[in-house]
Amino acid sequence: MNKALTKMQQDFVEVYVVTRNAKKSALQAGYSPTFAEKKSYGLLNDSKIKTAIAEAEKHYFSEKFKKLSALATEELENILINGNNKEKLRASEIIFKSSRLADMLIKQEDETEKPITITVSLPPELEGDIG
Hints:
Layout: H1 7-19, H2 22-29, H3 33-38, H4 40-43, H5 47-82, H6 85-98, H7 101-105, H8 124-127
Helix pairs in contact: 1-2, 1-5, 5-6
């Protein structure tokens, strides 16, 4: 908990990061309906609360990204095991691009912009499945 904030302010921050609704966040944090109706958006102008929201968003979205990344990896693995050849090829392409292997394997010889040619050969069992 952020020591610069009261318990209600911290609760407001935690709910606001998820809902993005100041009135609803104020109500759930324990503020009165009158305060929530008339003054809840004023909480967003408090510099301590702005800072706490920014910190909470970093953590919230980082955790959310980790969970989504794990789900995506699991789904790609499932496709590689159970998908048809076209799906397996697409999943392999996504894994290759997202792992930055392409950046490591393809290096420009010098700093000048030259076109490069990449030739990809598919196994015969995949050739009829593409397109």
